[in-house]
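Re-run with default settings, no changes from the original entry. Doing this only to confirm the output is reproducible before filing.
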Amino acid sequence: MLRKLTFAAAIVATSAVAAFAAGDHKGKHGGKVVESGHHHLELIAADGSLTLYVRDEADKPEDVTKAKASATVLADGKTEAVDLQPAAGGVFSGKGAFKAAKGATIVITLTMPDHKPEQARFKLD
């Protein structure tokens, strides 16, 4: 009986980790969170505006002042590149002419100093 309970607990824990890795949860700022290698990326998208929060593996804001990030927004049959500018507190922001409609896809490319580029894909609900 104990073995069955331990196995069931392991399945629940594995499912929770998989859901987190897949970006199936809300972040600290109300956006969708996705893993991009060594970072937790939280994206908030509004019409014409993107805000990206970058947190490390310990869930602390990363210093992004020397990092680079960009977004490719695929919405309404159009593709738009958006440069994201770093700010204090592990935040990037950028502006464009896109609509943040349900079904839009946003691909983030993040390059931290002395690291290889990482990518994350967000699908807007």
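The longest strand covers residues 78-87. The CA atoms of residues 49 and 103 lie 16 Å apart.
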